[in-house]
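Q: Got a minute? One more chain.
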Amino acid sequence: MLPSGELRAALVAIEPVAVPGPFFRTVAFKYLQATGRIAPHVLSGLPGRERGGRYNSSGSYLTTYLAESPETALSEGIRPFLGSAVTPALTRPLVMLTVRGQLHRVLDLLDPGVQGRVGTNAAELVAPYLLDALKGEAATQRLGKCAYLSERFEAIRGPSAQRPAGHTIAVFSERVGAPSKLEVYDPDGILRDGLPR
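A: Always. Here it is, folded:
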């Protein structure tokens, strides 16, 4: 991955792309149980900011992680528990959500040309990042910060670390604006959340 200054310069020359939904997200049941008829944290990015993730450091900017398939969302949501030697019978309850909409300003790291321009590759994008994050900032988090601060991108699309054929999207919740739109799909009207706010 390029250093921060070179990343900022490279991002200026990369054109954002549009990515249509639907998207998918798994959410721990505890985040939904007391919400009543609205789920304010499903797309807010608050849990992502608190914990951090592949493209954002803990305590930084609001980030919501989505997947492009239900299988990838489930793999990304449950894998941390399975990979930590906790038996599958003891995993926390997860709820699968469908998110309708589209994003129009996406940094597409699935494109090998874009990877080359920011000095990365598929292996680095799915490599374990937590140890680097504990020491300061992982390379993917540095890329996420530069993309966020550029204000040119509302999301980053990349490969899934948990499912080889899967794709994830890190959405900068505060950056989503028209014509982009995301909304939790629930025909029963129990869960409601959307972006932009």
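A: The mean pLDDT is 90.
Q: Perfect, thanks.
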